[in-house]
Design goal:
The complex is a heterodimer. By secondary structure, chain A is of the alpha+beta class. Helix content of chain A is 18%, strand content 34%. The longest helix of chain A is centred in the N-terminal third of the chain and has 23 residues. Chain A is globular, with a radius of gyration of 19 Å. The N and C termini of chain A lie far apart (54 Å). Chain B is α+β, with helices and mostly antiparallel strands. Chain B folds into two domains: 40 residues; 143 residues, Immunoglobulin-like. Chain B has six helices and nine strands. In chain B, the strands form two sheets. A five-stranded antiparallel β-sheet of chain B has the order 1-2-8-4-5. In chain B, a hairpin with a 4-residue loop joins strand 4 and strand 5. The chains are: A alpha+beta, B alpha+beta. The interface between A and B is large, with 57 and 57 residues.
Chain lengths: 182, 185
């Protein structure tokens, strides 16, 4: 069966509209954090004329947008830019988050309901206000988060009422360095 | 030539329509489907606590260790008053409109108390605002009953979140926050 010229154009137009819509939803709602940080901030800026895309980004995942007074950062790669792998051990390290409350979670990408997390009251901060959390599927000494058994892994950092509302770079956010892989 | 131009323009409009449908309706449908699963068994204007294993996927800044309470607000029959009871700790209360945007929030520092009321009413339309003699800037002011917020549309979602510092206290904290009411007047 041959598709007529008109029908082919119509199908191509609809497909293009659908694909660009999906791409726009995928890319909206996240902004990169400056200073070459691998963290992305997930947010909806109500002043943004395209905020509907950002809201759609969260709704498409069956989730509410992050509340205004919280900041949500996520990443799926280590400091070398390589994807996080469940068979590797990583060290999340940096200054202790300056917020009234914070939590670090690790989950299979797209399945935050399966996340394991630790938070401000669970984690032991060193005397020099340093945060060190080992992410590994084997238990580790000190602060530890179990890596999920998944092909793609996502790490999130939620800051609730951060003392500095304008986190401008990686200096304020912890780094995620690969230690080894099995 | 004219025939091809016609189909080109038609395809362009069909593409724009498909794009808009994808960003406007598809996410809302996914969200509503998930919300329906979460609120299943709970009537509108009823406060309940979420299951810990579902709350992190729904409120991305929360974890399973936190406590998250929800009320699906239905303003079709008039105003709704939420009388919240929260423990003396860090907490946040937000209202999301039917479009998914956060339209109101209050925390422990702003409320200055471990129990507070928020009265929700449907936002007036432009014509109603012009006709009304009432002060148009009354949203957010402290009234006798507590706080007041206007919601665009007839539905909204009230979300109460607070972290649990000591999981052994979880049951006690849950019992306290379960006293929260979400009542249509």
């Amino acid at each position: 069966m041959r598709l007529s010229f008109g029908a082919a154009f119509l199908v191509a137009g609809i497909a293009a509209g659908y694909i660009t819509g999906l791409q726009a939803l995928l890319r909206s709602g996240t902004v990169s954090v400056p200073n070459n940080s691998k963290w992305l901030q997930e947010l909806v800026n109500p002043k943004d004329p395209y905020a509907i895309y950002a809201v759609g980004h969260f709704e498409a995942q069956g989730a509410l947008p992050p509340p205004r007074e919280s900041q949500l950062f996520s990443r799926d790669s280590d400091e070398d830019g390589k994807s996080l792998r469940s068979e590797c051990t990583y060290l999340l390290s940096g200054t202790a988050p300056a917020a009234r409350w914070w939590a670090v979670s690790v989950a299979p990408a797209g399945a935050m309901a399966d996340a394991v997390s630790t938070n401000a009251s669970d984690v032991i901060i060193t005397g020099d206000e340093r945060l060190n959390i080992t992410l590994s599927h084997r238990t580790a000494a000190g602060n530890w988060l179990a890596m999920p058994d998944a092909a793609n892994v996502k790490v999130t950092l939620a800051l609730h009422e951060p003392y500095d509302q304008n986190i401008k770079g990686s200096a304020s956010l912890p780094t995620l360095t690969k230690v080894n892989c099995e | 030539m004219m025939g091809r131009m016609f189909w080109l323009v038609t395809a362009l409009f069909a593409g724009i329509a498909a794009h808009l449908a994808t960003i406007l309706y598809a996410p809302s449908l996914t969200f509503e489907r998930k919300l329906n699963v979460i609120v299943a068994g709970h009537k509108p204007n009823n406060f309940f606590l979420m299951m810990p294993d579902t709350q992190a996927g729904f409120l991305p800044t929360s974890t399973a260790e936190d406590i998250v309470g929800l009320c699906l607000v239905d303003l079709s029959k008039g105003k709704v008053v939420i009388d919240a009871h929260v423990p003396q700790s860090f907490w946040n209360f937000s209202i999301y409109g039917s479009s998914g945007q956060q339209i109101y929030d209050i925390n422990d520092v702003e409320a200055g108390a471990d129990s507070f009321s928020v009265e929700l009413t449907k936002a007036k339309s432009l014509i109603e605002q012009v006709r009304s003699n009432a002060d148009p800037d009354d949203a957010g002011k402290i009234a006798n009953s507590g706080w007041h917020a206007e919601v665009p549309g007839e539905q909204a979602l009230a979300v109460l979140w607070f972290p649990v510092r000591d999981q052994t206290q979880r049951k006690t904290l849950e019992d306290e926050v379960k006293q929260t009411n979400c009542n249509a007047n």
